[in-house]
Amino acid sequence: MVIAMQLLGFVKTSPDGRVLIPKDIRKQYGLEDKRVKLFYKNAMIYLRISDTAGSTGQVREINGQGRLSIPAEFRRNMNWEHQDYIEMYTNSVYFCFRGNKQVCTFCESTDLTMTSIYGKYICDDCIQTVLGKKYLL
Predict the structure, then answer these.
(1) Cα separation of 22 and 11, whole Å?
(2) SS (H, E, C) 34-90
(3) Residue 93: what are its φ and ψ, rounded to 5°?
(4) pLDDT (tens digit, 9 = 90+) per residue, 46-67?
(5) What letter does residue 136 receive in the DSSP assignment?
(6) pTM of the complete model
(7) 10 Å Cβ neighbour count for 135?
(8) DSSP-based three-state secondary structure for 91
(9) Bridge-based pairing state of the strands 95-99 and 85-90
(10) Res. 122 pLDDT band, cuts 50 70 90
(11) For residues 15 and 75, is the Cβ–Cβ distance under 8 A?
(12) 37/110 Cα distance (integer angstroms)
């Protein structure tokens, strides 16, 4: 059975490997000051509120400011670096994080048609806006 994933938004990684879960999301899903289990599978990091059952995963705490430290091993597996955009998803069971380096610098779109300029991505819509929609790609 496949459970549909809902995109919640994007977060950036900090120099020390943390992600900041936005306050409205923490409130909506009851994640404030919770201990969670993290595990890595299929190029995604899964997060679930920790219970005492089961030994799979690494237990971490979401602090009062919403910061969650992602284990270095997981970040290496995902090839995450400082300031990378991370997609945050949820379904009825888990929260999931997936790296996405192709996020528009201006509008944060994840459009598949991105242009890389000096390591930054720009979507076609923003390029058209910058060019005054005068030029066609």
Answers:
(1) 8
(2) CEEEEEEECCEEEEEECCCCCCCCEEEECCCCCEEECCHHHHHHHCCCCCCEEEEEE
(3) -120, -45
(4) 888 876 555 567 888 888 888 9
(5) -
(6) 0.66
(7) 9
(8) coil
(9) antiparallel
(10) confident
(11) no
(12) 28
In this structure, what token pair is assigned to residue 98?
């997936």
Task: At 35, list the tokens.
Answer: 């201990």
Look up residue 32 and give its two tokens.
């404030």
Tokens at 136, concatenated: 């066609």
Whose tokens are 């879960």? That residue is: 21
Q: Which two tokens stand for residue 26?
A: 């923490």
* Identity of the amino acid at 94: Y
- DSSP conformational letter for 132: T
d(Cα 13, Cα 34) in Å, to the nearest integer? 20
